[in-house]
Amino acid sequence: MIDVLWKGLVGGLVTMAIVLASRRGNVLPGILPLAPTFAIIALLAVGAKGDAAGFRAVCLAGAKTIPAYLVFLAAAWWLGDRLDYRLAILGALAAWLVAAGLIFWLPRWL
């Protein structure tokens, strides 16, 4: 139970850092999500099982999400001056879901 609590604390601290950084400018909040906080949490959780193949699978799955993240950012950028920022985020999230779905499920259908 303690390991779940500290992982939540790490995620909360990164969120706090992003919010605090947004008060100082616009670039740093965009860079902070590149810190592999959630990847580290996932790797720690899977690595604790002692399964090297599972550990490597998490690495590969994380690498596969990079194009979907870029789709998210591109959609948010494009929608940013066309819609309210909240709708732009929702639209970008929808684009991310489509991209992630294609990345992970399309190979199964082929």
TrEMBL record:
<protein>
    <submittedName>
        <fullName>Membrane protein GlpM</fullName>
    </submittedName>
</protein>
<feature type="transmembrane region" description="Helical">
    <location>
        <begin position="27"/>
        <end position="46"/>
    </location>
</feature>
<feature type="transmembrane region" description="Helical">
    <location>
        <begin position="58"/>
        <end position="79"/>
    </location>
</feature>
<feature type="transmembrane region" description="Helical">
    <location>
        <begin position="85"/>
        <end position="106"/>
    </location>
</feature>
<dbReference type="Pfam" id="PF06942">
    <property type="entry name" value="GlpM"/>
</dbReference>
<keyword id="KW-0472">Membrane</keyword>
<keyword id="KW-1133">Transmembrane helix</keyword>
<dbReference type="InterPro" id="IPR009707">
    <property type="entry name" value="GlpM/YdgC"/>
</dbReference>
<keyword id="KW-0812">Transmembrane</keyword>
<feature type="transmembrane region" description="Helical">
    <location>
        <begin position="5"/>
        <end position="21"/>
    </location>
</feature>
